[in-house]
UniProtKB/TrEMBL annotation:
Keywords: Signal
Pfam families reported for this sequence: Vps62 (PF06101)
InterPro entries: Vps62, VPS_Associated
Protein name: Vacuolar protein sorting-associated protein 62
UniProt key word Lipid metabolism: no
Protein source organism: Phyllosticta capitalensis
Highest taxon listed in the record's lineage: Eukaryota
Amino acid sequence: MPSGKSILWHAGLLVAGASLASGLLEKPKVQGVPQYVMDYAPLCYLHHQELYFPSDLQKHLDNTTPKDDNFNKIDGAPSPLSLTNLNKLNDYGDGGKNVWLTANDDITKDPEWIKGAAPDCDGKASDAIAVAVIMVDKGDDNMDVFFQYFYSYNWGGVVLKAFNAGNHVGDWEQNMIRFEKGKPTYVWYSQHGNGQAFAYDILEKDKDGQRFINYVANGSHANYAVSGSHDHTIPELNLGKGILMDYTDGPKDGAKLWDPLQNAYFYTFSNSTGKPTFTSAEPGKYPTEYLDYLGKWGDKQYPKSDKRQQEILGGISYKFVGGPTGPIDKQLVRKDVCPDNGNPCILRHIIGP
């Protein structure tokens, strides 16, 4: 991790680099979305070597087939798949939990659709709906807002400088902003099995001092508050060197600026009646059914008999693992800023590991 001095130096570069963002498209105005959600939305920097960019949700469905735990095509599944019928897959595979959106192509051939859409000079990933902005009203004018980012492919990185591990089809990542009385207080960054939470005030911002910066790791798309090298072997601790490395960078290194507001659908979410319910922020404008899907957004982990698979260090990891669940499974209703996963929720008030 950079030192405090280098962070300040880098932040200065960031402000200079962020002036490049002056050409960003105007924030969309969406009925049912408070202005503060737009004003304090993240800006993302994608690593300059990134190959797998934010991906259009419908395009992902167009290139996958629902399969069961035995890698068999599910008879009777809706065809073609769409954002308005994906929830019908919950009728199969133990309420959808054992359904896998399996790539139609051999992903080792790097088909074009898994590469997503690189942001243009305005920070927009052209023709790609790749973000679900989900607002959760907590009462008393307090709100949690989730920016759920979708990528069609996750490149897992290199372990011990020798083994490529942890690749999977489909990748949901997120930032969560906790608002109190319309003011941002904390931001959570998803990182592999855990993540980190920081006070909003200490985060790097754009040139206007409102939108915080989210550094997206090359390939894995984990989210970090600072650029550089990140070892994520130990949950809640990011060191500069280690076994499991992520790499992020900023404008001085040629990172691509992405404004997720330009590629988003907007929703509210409630579980007050015991039934999770997504509602389009602007009535009837955004499909909600795909958010109710309980299955996986990628292939099931390939067996060792699959020629594409490679066992790493006696089964500690594998070259290809299973795809993730979607936003409904991301603890949208939570007490703490962090998800409840058994790890402590450390609310950081300094930028550091």
